[in-house]
Design brief:
This protein is α/β, with parallel strands linked by helices. The protein has helices at about 25, 45-55, 55-60, 75-85, 95-100, 145-165; strands at about 10-15, 20, 30-35, 65-70, 90, 105-110, 115-120, 120-125, 130-135.
């Protein structure tokens, strides 16, 4: 499991439009929210995705990008995104390699048997590649709003630091 203060594992994954998402490139420009979810178009995952999508403009105003990751195929992601009008990228981690690196793909006991499952997890990564927030076992309802508050706090702190260092002054 990863914790705040640790470096974020870098990765590249394809999105629903078959374009490659490169975390290193992304974090150089924006705060990034990565959230791992169980499966496209299931009730909890759909509610969570719609909440993130509904708040997309607020995340963007904080210079933050939201990205959802699951083991679903690209075509399933495209159908899920289009069906619900989702406004952010969905990445396909079919082999669970990235999910493992983030501690979201874990062995658990389900119905008396041990098996690997996705654990709903969320991370906020700053522009230097440091995890600023990590949560496992997320409750999908209301979670996007909680994450937005964390992002706003980080964004505000970043603006204050930039002004303090003279980086935010305009002539």
């Amino acid at each position: 499991m990863l914790n705040a203060g640790q470096p974020a594992p870098l990765f590249e994954l394809p999105d629903a439009d078959f374009e490659l998402f490169d975390l290193r490139e992304q974090m150089a420009r924006h705060l990034t929210v990565l959230y791992f979810y169980i499966k496209d178009d299931t009730p909890g995952c759909t509610a969570q995705a719609i909440e993130f999508s509904d708040l997309e403009e607020h995340f963007r105003n904080c210079d933050c990008t939201v990205v959802g990751i699951s083991r679903d195929e690209l075509f399933t992601h495209a159908e899920f995104r289009d069906k619900h009008g989702l406004a952010f990228r969905l990445l396909s981690d079919v082999d669970a390699e990235v999910s493992r690196r983030y501690g979201a793909w874990r062995e658990r006991e389900v119905e008396g048997r041990s098996r690997f499952c996705m654990t709903r997890s969320t991370f906020i990564i700053d522009r230097k590649g440091v995890i600023r927030y990590a949560q496992y076992g997320v409750n999908p309802r209301g979670h996007a709003g909680e994450i937005l508050e964390c992002v706003r706090a980080l964004h505000t702190k970043g603006i204050r630091n930039a002004h303090h260092q003279g980086l935010g002054r305009h002539s």
